[in-house]
Amino acid sequence: MDVSHEIELLVQEIQRLGSKSADGQTKVKFGVLFNDEHCANIFEALVGTLRAAKKRKLINFEGELLLQGVHDNVDIVLL
Fold it and tell me: Smaller CB count within 10 Å for the chain: N or C?
């Protein structure tokens, strides 16, 4: 699976699992995304896909790298 396709799937999963905030942006917590069984089956390297999507300015999150447990409450925002 190529990176562009994985990013498209990531955007779909953020839309599925996330919720719209008052400003109209869709957000999901990293822990929700990481612990979702469907996501676990799709993404071989979720953190790598998140970094690639952030680099392409499709999503945003605080920091450069997200780790399970430590960053479970970090919002991933769909741009």
Answer: N
